[in-house]
Sequence to fold (154 residues):
Amino acid sequence: MKYTRLTKEQLEEMHEEFATFLAAQQITAEEWKELKTEKPEVAEQELDVFSDLVWEKVLSKVEYIDKIDAQSVFLFQIQEQQIRLIVLKTKAQIDCTTQEGMQWVLDNYQQESVEVFQATKKLSEDRNQEIFELIQQGGSISKGDYYTFFSQLI
Fold:
């Protein structure tokens, strides 16, 4: 398995897609029930393959990731061959993970209490794996609103 298995909730949300996946594997609903009870390891493998397919599809479309913690905001723009990064670090006693804290960063990014950094990194051959690792480290897929805002100002 390349990524992680989808959660039970995620699999339930994707039950139609999973049924289509099983049909493509020529596994009927009845055979699936049988697999789960008689050959659980095979059923687990099918779940893993399906999860990887879903992750690949999702990750291939990712353009922005935000990773926000109490004192820092990491904004990633994922391009075809590189990742661009804007980092804002605050010296103030605020929590960037709250709406008020993020608003404070937006209002005060030009002050001495906020350090702003930029960087660019070439993507490896496995673009999706790098994106997945950013998500595993606490990043969230976003529409890029914060990245766009700050990239226009810097």
User: Anything to note?
Assistant: Residues 8-60 form one domain. The first helix runs from residue 8 to 13. The beta strands are 64-68, 72-78, 82-90, 114-122, 140-142.
